[in-house]
Amino acid sequence: MRRFLQYLMLAALAVFLGAFLLLPIGTVIEEGCSPALIREVFRNPVYVEGLLNSLAIAGVTTFLVFCIALVLALLYDRYDFFGKSSCNLLMLLPMILPPFVGALGFQQVLGHYGILNSILVRCGFAPVDFLGGNGKFWAVCIMEALHLYPIFYLNLVTALGNIDPALEESAANLGAGRLRRFFRIKLPLLRSGILAGGSIVLIWSFTELGTPLMFQYNRTTSVQILNGLMELESNPVPYTLVLVMLVFSALLYLLARLSLGRHEIASTKGATASSAQRLTGFFRLLPLLAFLAVTAVAVLPHTALILNAFSTNYYGTILPEGFTLDHFRDALGSNLVLPSVGNSLRYSALATVIAATAGILCGLASVRWKLKGATLTDLLAMLPLAVPGVVVAFGFLGMSVKYPWAARCFNPVENPLWLLAIAYAVRRIPYVVRSVTAGLEQTPEELENAGRNFGASPFRVLRRITLPLIAANVLVGGLFAFSFSMLEVSDSLILAQKSEFYPITRALYELAHVLGSGPATASAFGVWTMLFLGATIIAAGILVGKKIGSIFRF
Amino acid sequence: MAKIEISGISKAYTKDVPVLKDLDLTIQSGEMFFLLGPSGCGKSTLLRILAGLVKPDAGIIRFDGEDVTEVPPEKRRAAMVFQNYALWPHLNLFENVAFGLRCLGVKGGELINKVMEALELVRLQDFAKRRPASLSGGQQQRVALARALAVDPPLLLLDEPLSNLDARLRDAMRVEIRRICRLRKLTALYVTHDRQEALSLADRAAVMDNGVIRQMGTPEMLYDFPADRFCAEFLGDVNLIPGRVEQRNLISALGNFNLSHPCRNGNAVGAIRPERLRILPENAPDVPCSFGATITDRTYLGESCLWRCRTALAEVEVRESAGPARKIGDRIRLSFDPEFLLVFPE
Question: Is residue B22 a contact partner of residue B59, using CB atoms and an 8 Å limit?
């Protein structure tokens, strides 16, 4: 009977994931999988250019992210230095702003009348059009890299922490020099971390919608999909574009996997004492300075955004001409802002409850109950990490057109509460699943057996022992699910179609395009969201310390 | 107190690799029974089957005559002391001990009294508000014991509870466990691979190997009269003398030895424990059951001395309390009482 109930719950989870993850993807594939449309996509130079640009963005961004993250992760792992304990929290700072909001700040820095050009003019040079020509491409890549390097870094730090120092020591003992040890021992052992972090960054940057949109770099597949939304009923090409994006995402992942391998190396277990080398004197400060320098560049858009939000006039000057709180007042007074905060809170809270329930169920089924099919469900729950947000959002839209039941439940023109909550939840389940799974794996099963042995029913064991013991993990997964939902872009731009139902990101996007004080008001609104996401991520960081990287793993 | 009957229990975690094979065992009410065997012999699995944490593939378990094979663990009242203690880290000592009592519906003053009584029994009453992580290994082990005893279980299951402790603490805890079990007249099943623990605490014990019970009996019987070579070797050090039995004689390269017990003719191996051998001078008058040897090594053990000696057959070990001074290279004779010569057909 008990086993039957467990299977029933697993089946409910599988049905949920089937209906709200596989079905949307299936809908996109079915609608877009027409040879004529696929030929049309690959013959039309505009679409091909969009695809090539997206691939180029993914490649360049991942390369930039890898370079930044590897250096910092190695510094963190290899040395004991001043301020080391605060470095991981420092790493989380760039994540407190969705890159598309950061783009507002970035424009303030690199725009024709932005900070950098003001400095050049002040120094007697001619202004440079940083964002003209290829500048937009590089701006998108740098903006995304500055947002995503913490994910790669956290994965690398986790992977480095799992390597037994004795492995490198034994290589040194046999005469291997520093470089040989790095390339022959450390780098091969890091492959799983590189794959885990790299594939998230690769797919994220390939499918990113908000950043190119804000920089008006419109020749990318994701922006072309959004632009095609209006004429979807007469022109089904966006479905095919989504399909092409899905296939290329899968290919990119496979490519990464083939080149890096997936096998875990058994001897990485059992790491004991840290082998970090203690730095002395001035050298104690150097690694921290490197961390601070990278973070300073990464938070430059945030800083510019904050300055913009407080400035009376910030146009062609290095610093604002004067300071005001008017934009914050305007932001709160805008008929888009307050309702959008309320909407986002509702959508995200519901999404968090759904994601947490599904995540806990998935973790229990695979780690504790060890049900047949649980591994498959676990893989399914992790799929959203590899599937672009645009694909799922578009799939939901397709479902509401195709299936009458979906149209009744999820009409985006009507109240999209459930549609957005489920769409947000499905994409955030992986964070809860990984966090809960890690918690369960770190909690000895014997503690629950002891509970049963002393007379507690399975439900009582769950309530009194299991859940309290993994509470921090559930909380962290939930915090991520909540804060990422609050600032979700793809679903919000595609699925929220009426202004009264706009979530924060959609409202921000609309505000940023209002002529006059629009960008400044959007900046003020962006500062609010930044404070909010900052508080949640720092709370999560404090709760789980450096293990936070495990949340961003496949 | 409960009488435990185990009949025909079998278990295999993976097909074709049985962990327990058609096992029968009866533990009398109030008895302290030990399951002794090497790692992987199935003893912990049997314990977990009794606790209800593992389901047997076949067989029946009865507590006081009542079939409990299908009863879920929370209904069995077979309190277990886990090998790694399994103390809940998020609950303090009081709450850890109170957990089982709350499940039984005990509340208020009675709950407090019972918890404190259990903590007093293991002499940890002053630590009630502390979390398990702040205790030493020995203290945690005592909490695990108190938690099990608090529910006044008819059956106490102990899964290698002393394996993580240092030697001194282990000795102290052995005395403690025996004191408590006798005080409460508990039926206890104790799993260990430590023969000293089993021999010093058990009323009766069973030696397990490869999923079956090889021998069952009192500690003295198991040690002095092991049923086979495995039991003899598992329960203590032993010198082996391969040979052949003919007409109640063990014929070996060391000589012919009269047997005090009947044994069927054929190839056999004689076994004698190191402390049963006596060292005599080389020129001692010819005594039955003796053979010549040369001392090759000496290990000082404090209360005794272990001599390694080369014989015509192989090296043998002799344990004797501090005696006359000897040195490596001395020629000696070794003799033994035929009653202590064990013979196992090959």
Answer: yes
